[in-house]
Specification:
The complex is a heterodimer of chains A (169) and B (602).
Chain A (H helix, E strand, L loop, with lengths): L1 H16 L2 H16 L5 H12 L4 H30 L5 H8 L12 H36 L3 H7 L2 H9 L1
Helix pairs in contact in A: 1-4, 2-3, 2-4, 2-6, 4-6
Chain B lengths: L3 H38 L3 E9 L4 E11 L2 E16 L9 E12 L2 E2 L18 H11 L5 H4 L2 H4 L6 H26 L3 H16 L4 H68 L2 H31 L31 E11 L5 E10 L2 H4 L3 E9 L2 E10 L6 E12 L4 E5 L2 E19 L2 E17 L6 H12 L3 E9 L4 E7 H82 L6 H7 L1
Parallel strand pairs in B: 4-6
Antiparallel strand pairs in B: 1-2, 2-3, 3-4, 3-5, 6-7, 7-8, 8-9, 9-10, 10-12, 11-12, 12-13, 13-14, 14-15
Helix pairs in contact in B: 2-8, 5-7, 5-11, 6-7, 6-11, 7-11, 10-11
The chains are: A mainly alpha (169), B alpha+beta (602).
C-alpha cells in the first residue's frame, strides 16, 4: 500500500504538481542513496538534505528504489573505480590523512564499493538533474498535454481507478 | 531554499536524546557498574554516585565498594572517589583512552553495614581445581588434632588396604576351590573295583582245575583277571592324577595366602610411613603454618589470575573480516597513526590506607584491554609510611609479550601481628599475642610457571597456645611456643599458577624438634603399634579363616586319596599273587605248556 501511495504521489508530481527542478533534485539525491551501500554515513547526510531541501520526496524514494536495483549491475564497475583510486600510490597520502582524521572514517571511504559508487553517483548527479528537468518539461508538454485530450483518458478520469489514484496521491 | 522549520523538526529527537542522557546517563552508568561488577565479582558491588560531564569528557564515581565474596560483611576494596578524564580524539574511533585518573581513599578489608552476599545460582559446581586440591591436602596436614588425623581406624580403612582388598577378592575363589577338593576326593569310586577284585581272588582260591576243562577254566579266569588288573591300573592312575592336580591347586592357594600376608606387611609399612612423615616436627610446622600461608598465597594468585583475565592477554588487532559477495566491497587499510586499544588507562594516581593503618600513595599505569597495542606492562607502584610502619609495593603485569610475566615485590615492615592466627596444632589454636614483624614478598609468574619467596620476620613476638588438651605433646608444644621470642618463616613458591607448590622453612622447626622429640617418639611408637594391630585385626582374621579352610579341605581330600590309593594297591598285589598262583600251581598239575609265558605274550 505504501509503495502504491509513493508511486501515485510520484506520478501526480510528475504529471502536474511539482516543479521539474524539485523532481529532478529528488531523483538525483535518491540516486545517490540507491547506488551506494545503505549503511554508509553519507546516506544519512543525503537523507537530511532531502528532508531540508525543496525536493520531491516521492521522487527520491522512487529513484532510490530503481537505482538500488541498478546498483547490483553497477557493482563490478564501482568496485573497480574504488579499487583503482584507493590503491593509487599518488593518492595514498590523501587517503592516509583522511583515515587518521576524526569522523571521516565513519564514511567508510576506504571501502572500494562505497568510494566507487559514491563517486559514480556524484558524477552522474548533474547530468541526471538537468536531464530530468528537461525530461519533465518535455513529458508534460508532449505526453500529458496531448493525452489529456484522449477520450480514453477522459473516461479514466471519471472512473473509480482514478478516484483511488487521487486519494492515494 | 532550506526549510528551517524542518530543521527544527529534525533537531527535536537529537535534543530529546541529549536531555535523556543528561538526566539519566549517570544513573544508567551507576546501575551498569553495579550489575556488571556484582556479576563479575560474585558479591555485591555498590556505587554511591556517578557524575559524568559530556563536554569535559570526564566522570567521577564516588563511594565504590566491592564486597569480598568470601566474607560478605567485609569490603574487599572500598574507594572514596574515582575521577576519570578521557581523551576526545580516540572516541571518534570508539576507543576510550583515560588520560588521567585519580583514585582517592582506597581501603581494603573494611566492614560493611549490610551483607554483600548474593543469591547463588544453581549452576553445577565445577570440579575442584588443582589449587583447591593442594589447599585440601595442606588443610589435612593442618592437623587440627594429630591423633584424629592419624587415627589407626582411619588409616586402616578397608578400602585403603591392598591386603584386605586381595583377601576379599580371593576369599570366594579359595572357598569354592577348597569345597571342590573335598567333593572331588569323595567322588572317586574305588569301592566297586575293590569288591570285584576281592571276589575274583576268592573265586580263584576256591576253584578246582582238572583235565582239559580245568585248563579252559583257568584260561578264562586268567583272562578275567587280566581285565580286572587293567581296570585296577586305570583306577589307580586316576587317583594319582587327581592327587597331582589337587597338590598343584593347594600349592597355588597357599601362594595366594602368602601374597595376602606380604601385602599385609606392605600395608603396615605404608601406614607407618604416613605417620613418620606427618607425625613429626616438620609435619607439625607444616600443619601450623601451611593453611594460613597457603590461603594468603591462594588469594594473591587469584588476584594475579583476575588481572590477567581482565587485561585479556596478547590478542593483538583483530584481522579484518573477509569481504562478502553481498555489496560489501573491500576495505583498504591505511597506516593508522595511533596505537589505541579499546580501553586504556594511561595513568592513575592513587592514595589509600592499609588495614594496618599505613597511609600510602602511588600510581597505576597502563591498564589496557589490548596489552600488545599498549606495548607496556601494567605497573602498580605504591609506597607509604605511618609511624614505624612502612609499605612499598611494586607489581607489574606484562601481557604485551608472548609469554605473560607478572611480578610482585613488596615489603611491609612494622606490621602489628597481635591477634594473628598462625593455625592450629594438635587441636590447639596458636596465635600471636603481641609483637611486630615484616613481610617481604618477591613473586614472579612467567607464563604458567611460578617462582619466588615470601618471608616473615617476627621479632619480638609472644605466641599463645589455647591449650585444651593435657597430653605430653600439647604440654611440650605450649612450653616451646611460650619460649619463642622471634620467628622467621620462609615460604618458597614454585610450580605453576594452577598447581602451586610451596615449601615452608621456619626457625620454629628446630626449636620444636628439640623440645618435642621425646614426646613425639613416644606418641609415634604408640601410634605405630595401634596401626599394626588394627591392620592385623582386619586382615589377619580373614587370612587365618581362609588358611584354615584350605588346610582342612586339603587334608580331607588328600587323606581320602591316599586311602583309595592304598586300597587299590593292596587289591592289585593280591590279584597279582592270585594270578601267579593260578598260572604256576594250577597248570603244572595239568602238564600243559607254560601259561605264564603265554600270558606274558598277551
Amino acid at each position: 500500500m505504501l509503495a502504491l501511495k509513493i508511486l501515485a504521489s510520484f506520478f501526480k508530481a510528475l504529471n502536474e504538481k511539482a516543479s521539474p527542478r524539485a523532481i529532478a533534485g529528488g531523483l538525483a539525491l535518491g540516486a545517490i542513496i540507491g547506488l551506494t551501500p545503505k549503511g554508509s554515513f553519507h546516506n544519512a547526510v543525503v537523507v537530511i538534505l532531502i528532508f531540508l531541501l525543496p525536493v520531491n520526496k516521492s521522487a527520491s524514494l522512487v529513484s532510490a528504489g530503481i537505482f538500488t536495483l541498478c546498483s547490483y549491475l553497477g557493482d563490478p564497475l564501482f568496485n573497480a573505480i574504488g579499487e583503482a583510486l584507493l590503491t593509487a600510490s599518488a593518492l595514498s597520502p590523501l587517503w592516509t590523512s583522511l583515515y587518521n582524521t576524526p569522523v571521516i572514517p565513519w564514511t567508510r571511504f576506504n571501502n572500494t564499493l562505497v568510494l566507487g559508487s559514491l563517486l559514480f553517483s556524484l558524477f552522474i548527479f548533474y547530468p541526471l538533474f538537468w536531464g530530468t528537468v528537461r525530461f519533465v518539461a518535455v513529458y508534460r508538454e508532449r505526453v500529458v498535454a496531448v493525452s489529456s485530450k484522449w477520450k480514453i483518458v477522459q473516461v479514466l478520469r471519471v472512473s473509480k481507478f482514478y478516484a483511488l489514484y487521487e486519494s492515494l496521491s | 531554499m532550506i526549510r528551517w522549520g524542518r530543521l527544527a523538526v529534525l533537531l527535536t529527537p537529537i535534543v530529546l536524546i541529549w536531555v535523556g542522557t543528561h538526566f539519566f546517563l549517570d544513573s544508567t552508568i551507576k546501575n551498569a557498574i553495579e550489575t556488571v561488577g556484582t556479576k563479575a565479582v560474585g558479591a555485591k558491588v555498590d556505587v554511591g554516585n556517578v557524575n559524568t560531564s559530556f563536554w569535559r569528557l570526564s566522570a567521577k564515581i564516588s563511594d565504590l565498594a566491592v564486597t569480598d565474596p568470601d566474607e560478605p560483611m567485609t569490603n574487599a576494596v572500598e574507594i572514596k572517589s574515582l575521577r576519570l578524564k578521557a581523551g576526545a580524539k580516540p572516541l571518534f574511533w570508539k576507543k576510550v583512552i583515560v588520560e588521567r585518573a585519580e583514585i582517592v581513599g582506597i581501603r581494603t578489608g573494611t566492614p560493611r553495614k549490610r551483607s554483600g552476599a548474593i543469591a547463588v545460582s544453581d549452576t553445577p559446581k565445577e570440579a575442584p581445581s588443582a589449587v583447591e586440591e593442594t589447599a585440601k591436602e595442606i588443610a589435612s596436614s593442618a592437623v587440627a588434632n594429630l591423633k584424629d588425623a592419624y587415627d589407626p581406624e582411619k588409616l586402616v580403612l578397608p578400602e585403603n588396604l591392598a591386603s584386605h582388598q586381595k583377601a576379599l577378592v580371593e576369599k570366594e575363589r579359595l572357598t569354592a576351590m577348597a569345597d571342590q577338593w573335598k567333593a572331588r576326593g569323595e567322588s572317586l569310586d574305588v569301592k566297586g573295583i575293590s569288591t570285584r577284585g576281592q571276589a575274583f581272588i576268592e573265586k580263584v582260591k576256591n576253584e578246582k582245575f582238572s583235565g582239559l576243562e580245568g585248563v579252559a577254566k583257568a584260561q578264562a579266569l586268567i583272562k578275567e583277571g587280566q581285565s580286572l588288573k587293567s581296570d585296577l591300573a586305570a583306577a589307580q592312575k586316576e587317583v594319582k592324577s587327581l592327587g597331582a592336580d589337587l597338590k598343584n591347586e593347594m600349592a597355588a592357594a597357599k601362594t595366594v595366602l602368602k601374597d595376602i600376608d606380604r601385602l599385609r606387611r606392605q600395608d603396615i609399612d605404608a601406614a607407618l610411613r604416613q605417620i613418620k612423615s606427618g607425625f613429626s616436627t616438620e609435619g607439625l610446622t607444616k600443619g601450623l603454618l601451611g593453611p594460613v600461608w597457603f590461603e594468603k598465597l591462594q588469594k594473591a594468585l587469584g588476584w594475579i589470575e583476575k588481572g590477567r583475565k581482565l587485561a585479556g592477554g596478547p590478542s593483538g588487532e583483530k584481522a579484518p573480516p573477509p569481504p562478502s559477495a553481498n555489496r560489501k566491497g573491500r576495505d583498504v587499510l591505511f597506516p593508522f597513526h595511533y596505537r589505541w586499544p579499546t580501553f586504556h588507562l594511561e595513568q592513575a594516581t592513587l592514595d589509600g590506607e592499609t588495614p594496618g593503618g599505613v597511609v600510602y600513595k602511588g600510581t597505576l599505569t597502563d591498564v589496557g584491554t589490548d596489552p600488545v597495542l599498549v606495548g607496556k606492562p601494567t605497573v602498580l607502584d605504591v609506597a607509604g609510611q605511618t609511624g614505624a610502619r612502612s609499605l612499598t609495593l611494586r607489581a607489574s603485569l606484562d601481557l604485551s609479550k608472548k609469554t605473560a610475566e607478572t611480578s610482585v615485590r613488596s615489603l611491609y615492615s612494622g606490621v602489628p601481628l597481635e591477634g594473628t592466627s598462625l593455625g592450629s596444632v594438635n587441636g590447639n589454636a596458636v596465635s600471636i599475642a603481641q609483637g611486630k614483624g615484616s613481610v617481604s614478598a618477591d613473586l614472579m609468574a612467567r607464563g604458567p610457571d611460578l617462582s619466588g619467596t615470601i618471608d616473615l620476620q617476627a621479632s619480638p613476638i609472644k605466641l599463645t597456645l589455647s591449650s585444651q588438651k593435657t597430653d605430653r605433646v600439647s604440654a611440650a608444644l605450649g612450653n616451646v611456643l611460650a619460649g619463642l621470642s622471634e620467628a622467621t618463616i620462609k615460604l618458597n613458591v614454585s610450580g605453576s599458577m594452577t598447581q602451586p607448590r610451596f615449601a615452608i622453612t621456619s626457625s620454629i622447626d628446630n626449636q620444636l624438634r628439640g623440645a618435642l622429640k621425646g614426646a613425639m617418639d613416644q606418641e609415634t611408637a604408640k601410634l605405630r603399634a595401634d596401626v599394626e594391630k588394627a591392620i592385623n585385626d582386619r586382615v589377619g582374621e580373614e587370612t587365618e579363616k581362609l588358611s584354615a579352610l584350605v588346610e582342612k579341605n586339603a587334608a580331607i581330600a588328600l587323606d581320602k586319596l591316599n586311602l583309595n590309593d592304598k586300597q587299590l594297591g593292596d587289591i592289585q598285589e593280591k590279584l597279582n599273587k592270585a594270578l601267579d598262583d593260578l598260572a604256576g600251581t594250577g597248570t603244572k598239575k595239568l602238564k600243559i605248556p607254560d601259561l605264564k609265558e603265554l600270558f606274558k605274550k598277551k
